Amino acid sequence: MDADMLESIFSHALVNVVATVSGFALDILPQESNTDIDEIAGVMCLSGKKQGLLFISAKEKDVRLLCSYMTGTFPEEVAVADLKDTMCEIANMTAGNAKLRLSDTDYAFNLSTPFALTGESMALTVKTKTYLISKKIGNNEISLNLKFVC
Asked: Where are the alpha helices (DSSP H) in the chain?
């Protein structure tokens, strides 16, 4: 399995998850995102024959809107803890969706508990000869960055 197939599986998993939980129709944008990780990230470790890390990040305003649609709460009423929970749940569901599609491959992963990273000026640096999938997923209202390292 190559990086293009993994990119497609994880990108489509994220698009499907967001549509299911919020109703937002997102597109896989043609440009790759950079190595930056936005202000709030949901992260999961994937283990098995192959190892991987999944990062899904977004700016606070985008997570606030996404959480608002998921919970029926006004965006300005969403608590910071709920923003972190939202990104953890998005990462968890995306990894689970991809796991199902990869179950008969060398990428048959076990999933960790999701966790959140928050802060400013976070970036991801990987060694050479490491796959880094980096895609921007979004529409006119929200934008998410997907990164998968294996």
From this structure: 3-22, 60-71, 80-101
Whole-number Å distance between alpha carbons of 48 and 81: 31
DSSP, res 49 = S
Q: Does domain 3-149 have CATH number 3.40.1550.10?
A: yes
Residue range 43-62: mean pLDDT, rounded: 93
Q: Give residue 62's identity as a one-letter amino acid code.
A: D
With vertex at residue 138, the alpha carbon angle to CA 14 and CA 132, rounded to the nearest 5 degrees, is 60
Q: Which structure tokens are listed for 137?
A: 């997923």
* Single-letter amino acid, residue 11: S
User: Where are the domains positioned within the chain?
Assistant: 3-149
Around Cβ 146, how many Cβ atoms within 10 Å?
24
pTM beyond 0.85: the answer is yes
- Tens of pLDDT, residue by residue over 67-114, are 999 999 999 999 999 999 999 999 999 999 999 999 988 888 999 999
From residue 144, alpha-carbon distances to 78, 104, 107, 118 in Å are 18, 28, 24, 14
